[in-house]
Design brief:
Shape of chain B: globular
Radius of gyration of chain A: 27 Å
Structural class of chain A: alpha+beta
CATH class of the largest domain in chain A: Alpha Beta
Largest interface: A-B, 65 and 57 residues
Oligomer: heterodimer
CATH architecture of the largest domain in chain B: Roll
Helix content of chain A: 25-40%
Order of helices and strands of chain B: EEHEEHEHHHH
CATH superfamily of the largest domain in chain B: Beta-grasp domain
Shape of chain A: globular
Strand order of the largest sheet of chain B: 2-1-5-3-4
Number of strands of chain B: 5
Largest sheet of chain A: 7 strands, mixed
Structural class of chain B: alpha+beta
CATH class of the largest domain in chain B: Alpha Beta
Distance between the termini of chain B: 46 Å
Helix content of chain B: 25-40%
CATH superfamily of the largest domain in chain A: Aldehyde oxidase/xanthine dehydrogenase, molybdopterin binding domain
Number of strands of chain A: 28
CATH topology of the largest domain in chain B: Ubiquitin-like (UB roll)
Number of helices of chain A: 17
CATH architecture of the largest domain in chain A: 2-Layer Sandwich
CATH topology of the largest domain in chain A: Aldehyde Oxidoreductase, domain 4
């Protein structure tokens, strides 16, 4: 793309002080077409309007997608928002991944926030350029811009004259960039809400090299890495045998890790197993079982109060009935199918980083700090990612690549062998939730969640202010931190995933105890919450509950059904899971999901996220467990670390609430209720309450 | 050592160590990056290619075994990305991250070549060996059924 921004445009844009000029750092193959393109867009001369939009006289439009793409669909959805307000036909749009740039807000794939936080900016980026084009046309017609309208890249005036965007491109680019422009009414959206295919679909189905692991350039070295057990340090290593291997050039220590550098991936993978590494300070207490016992102990007494109101202890004392259940989950790995990898080229004064990251800015600042190179001399190109789920919110692997490159003074692509990807785990925290309810006059009066969590990544979100806060008169949330050296990190729907599961299961138990339908209980609780100041809207939660009730034929169906609902990542989701008993084994066959994520941008991508989140939750809750012994990850690959597969898969039916509310996120919120809805159906069928993940262990 | 390979109807000679998995020959020697590394132990299916028409794990196939055989990778599944399986994948908008999908399509296309009118259970059995970490299984299943319809038309 560098050739598309010529010197002339650069000067013009600089003079105008327009928001954006992107320096050409395009990863080959990352360009994606909105549809079939009859011409080679690289041959066209594009005029840049802002950081998001370039247009050519042929009518072709390039829209830059600012945020990292991990499979959550923002590379399709974010440009759709720009194209909607710019009002150009989607088939003329080519989407490109933007590099890290100060022109954009929060270039992060995390927390389901890309759409929610960027919606106004993306609209404005399109609308301001549309206004510039209309103004240029109005100037040509010598009429006020208020007498012009534009649609599908054509500007019209009240007399019936027409100009194409392409006709006024150059004149428009000379205009002052307006700060604001009129936005469309949501009823006038044409593109938003449509099913638009993944913009990289053609590249994906033909195997184009669009992922970080595919990156290659002349003179590049290959590296693999050996990771110490959690808490241990590197003592010594003997690389004699490894260095005898053909294609192996160096074996070097990188802190407590050992890197193997060579001429291709296979040789560095093979040689890795020949390095004799000795660790010191191996700690026997870095062990899942030891941590489990600490958690149980922590749950037996009061923990740190996080949130509370009313008189919980008194209410429990005065309750007619008190019920309590504890739910637990082991560590689980992100296990992105594309293993951790990154390309780094560290020179004396500058650094190029290319690869899969959810946090390009953090990657640059981390490497800058470690290498003592100014951050402005570091470029980061984002490739498409073979999954993220939170793992690539950390910068450890990017830094590893940079440190290796700095040490060997050559460009290098580091790829973690799967076993090392597992050893590098920064897992979903191991956690237990002890839930307690006090019932008085057959009404849920007091609610407590006591958490014991083994995590070491500092600040964490706490969902104590979410549902069911406000639904009971007395409420108490406590948390006990179990300190360990086992790395943990954000993992799809962090905290919500297990709090949502535990809450969903526990309310099912409470409803059974009270002899009430669990959906009726939710309604009662949300009635209590109505009118209170809460971070969620009880009314919207009721709407998704009612929608899933209707669609699943809840209470009337002859199927065995379980229900759960949760609010997280600003989105409301209610789910009903149907199961069949195959012998003694309960199998989920269908999941109904009702979702309120505000306005849906791309209905195809949105449904994909709901389907994926639900199947992901069912897969992990049934199968997946990481166990640690003496700091060492026991499940080294997919033979022992089990993931959900095709045979276990129910069919997901997704329904969205019809709303004009601003869009929220969808990469995560359908995850938390899914395993609860499944476990609740299992309880109905078997009488057994599943409390511990993985269910099938 | 020198080995001769026939990949996507083209002949290649590569100089690699004996025992090198076909996966790494494709990726690092022939620059065919569509075949993906996921586990290296034949568990995930991301590296699936066709060897004499059979879906095989290229991470478990050494260069010695691959030599002289007719190998097809995702890049060679069709000339213009228009194999019925590719068309179905596009129509159903299957991929999320997309990393596993080349392997999924290679498994699906070899399966449908042998069984062009599968029932739902047969589709599920056939696709069981391929992990999709994004869990796009609903759409994979649907796309295989749509591809089967296209093939039998």
């Amino acid at each position: 793309m560098s050739k598309t921004i010529n010197r002339r445009n650069f000067l013009r844009l600089s003079l105008l002080g327009s928001g954006g000029l992107l320096i050409g750092l395009q990863f080959a193959g990352c360009e994606s077409k909105g549809s079939e393109m009859p011409v080679d867009i690289d041959t066209l001369d594009f005029t840049s309007f802002n950081a998001y939009i370039e247009m050519a006289k042929t009518g072709h439009v390039i829209i830059y997608s600012p945020n990292p793409e991990i499979g959550q669909g923002v590379k399709t959805a974010m440009p759709m928002i720009v194209a909607e307000e710019l009002d150009v036909p989607w088939k003329m749009v080519t989407v490109k991944q933007a590099p890290l740039s100060n022109d954009f807000n929060r270039q992060v794939a995390g927390g389901s926030q890309s759409i929610r936080q960027n919606f106004p900016t993306l609209r404005n980026a399109g609308a301001t350029v549309k206004l510039m084009l209309m103004t240029a046309a109005a100037n040509q017609w010598k009429i006020p811009v208020s007498e012009c309208s534009a649609e599908d890249a054509i500007i019209k005036n009240t007399k019936g004259d027409q100009l194409k965007y392409a006709d006024v491109l150059e004149a428009a680019a000379l205009l002052e960039v307006p700060e604001k422009a009129p936005l469309k009414k949501s009823k006038d959206f044409k593109l938003i809400g449509q099913p638009i295919a993944n913009v990289d679909i053609d590249e994906i189905i033909t195997g184009k090299p669009i992922f970080g692991i595919d990156y290659k350039e002349e003179g590049m070295k290959f590296a693999s890495i050996i990771i110490p057990p959690f808490g241990a340090n590197l003592a010594t290593f003997d690389a004699k045998k490894a260095l005898e291997q053909k294609g192996i050039e160096q074996v070097v220590a990188i802190g407590d890790k050992v890197a193997i550098i060579g001429q291709n991936t296979w040789s560095v993978f093979k040689a890795k197993d020949l390095v004799d590494v000795q660790w010191k300070n191996i700690k026997s207490d870095q062990d899942s079982k030891v941590i489990d016992a600490k958690m149980d102990k922590a749950l037996s007494k009061k923990a740190n109060k996080i949130v509370g109101y009313g008189q919980y202890d008194k209410a429990i004392k005065n309750a007619d009935k008190v019920i309590s259940k504890t739910f637990s989950s082991p560590y689980v790995a992100h296990a992105t199918l594309e293993p951790l990898c990154f390309f780094a080229d560290v020179k004396e004064k500058n650094v190029r980083l290319i690869g899969p990251t959810q946090v390009p800015k953090d990657s640059a600042t981390t490497v800058a700090k470690e290498l003592g190179i100014p951050v402005e001399n570091i470029t980061v190109e984002m490739t498409r990612m073979g999954g993220g789920f939170g793992r690539r919110l950390s910068t450890d692997f990017t830094l590893e690549a940079a440190l290796i490159s700095a040490k060997i003074k050559a460009p290098v692509k580091l790829v973690h062998k799967r076993e090392d990807d597992m050893d590098s785990g920064q897992f979903r925290p191991k956690v237990k939730y002890q839930m307690t309810a006090g019932i008085k006059n057959n009404t849920l009066k007091a609610f407590q969640i006591r958490e014991a969590i083994a995590q070491n990544f500092g600040l964490r979100p706490w969902n104590a202010n979410f549902f069911p806060k406000g639904t009971t008169d007395h409420y108490n949330i406590e948390s006990a931190l179990i300190e360990t050296e086992i790395s943990t990190l954000w993992w799809r729907a962090p905290i919500s995933n297990m709090v949502g599961f535990s809450t969903g299961c526990f309310l099912d138990e409470v409803a059974e105890e009270m002899g009430k339908d669990v959906i009726d209980l939710h309604h009662e609780m949300l009635d209590v919450a109505t009118g209170k100041k809460l971070p969620y809207a009880p009314k919207r939660m009721k709407e998704v509950i009612d929608l899933v009730k209707e669609k699943s034929n809840w209470g009337k169906s002859d199927k065995i059904q379980g229900f759960a609902a949760y609010f997280s990542h600003n989105t409301y989701v209610a789910e009903v899971c149907e199961i069949e008993m195959r012998g003694d084994v309960p199998v989920p066959t269908k999941v109904f999901a009702a979702v309120d994520c505000g306005i849906v941008i791309n209905i195809s991508g949105a449904k994909a996220q709901v389907e994926g989140s639900i199947l992901d939750a069912l897969g992990h809750s049934r199968n997946s467990e990481i166990s640690i012994v003496k700091g060492k990850v026991q499940e080294q690959n997919f033979d022992t670390y089990k993931l959900g597969r095709m045979m276990d898969t129910p069919v997901v039916e997704t329904y969205f609430v019809d709303t004009n509310a601003a869009p929220t996120g969808l990469g995560e919120p359908a995850y938390p209720p899914a395993a609860a809805a499944f476990a609740n159906a299992v309880k109905k069928a078997t009488g057994k309450r599943w409390t511990n993940h993985p269910f099938l262990a | 050592m020198e080995f001769s390979l026939k990949v996507n109807q083209q002949n290649f000679t590569v100089e690699v160590d004996p025992g090198t998995p076909l996966l790494w020959v494709l990726r690092d020697e022939l620059q065919l990056m569509g075949t993906k590394y996921g586990c290296g132990i034949g568990q995930c299916g991301a590296c699936t290619v066709h060897i004499d028409g059979e879906a095989q794990r290229s991470c478990q196939t050494t260069i010695e075994i691959a030599e002289g055989q007719d190998i097809t990778t995702i890049e060679g599944l069709s000339d213009h990305g228009d194999h019925p399986v590719q068309e179905a994948w596009k129509e159903i908008d299957v991929p999320q991250c997309g990393y596993c999908q080349g392997g999924q399509m290679m498994t699906a296309s070899a399966f449908l070549a042998k069984n062009p009118s599968p029932d739902a259970k047969e589709i599920r059995m056939a696709m069981q060996g391929n992990i999709c970490r994004c869990a796009s299984y609903n759409r994979i299943e649907k796309a295989v059924a749509v591809a089967a319809e296209k093939l039998t038309k």
